[in-house]
Write a structure and sequence with these properties.
single chain, mainly alpha, about 65% helix
Amino acid sequence: MKEQELRGILSSNIKRCRLRDNLSQMALAEKLEISTNFLSDIERCKAWVSPDTLVKLAAALNIEPYELLKPDALLTIKEKDVLKQYANENMKAVLTVLNQLKDF
């Protein structure tokens, strides 16, 4: 896994948990004692976090630090079902197009 991929996973998990907890970036940044700009940079994959900040983020979001780095770790069952349905619908659309192209 490349660093940018890991940053993307971290970013998605932070955003998802922050929104789940109805926290603004400003409110979460205040809890972490970091600037809102720095948190924004983390969420936009522009900055990386120190181990201390990762631990503080996890504590503020009521999860374990490793969960912030796991792909799809924090998806709810409903979110996973929606993603699965979306993938299935896309696959059907692709197959339809391929079948139409085959007929040409």
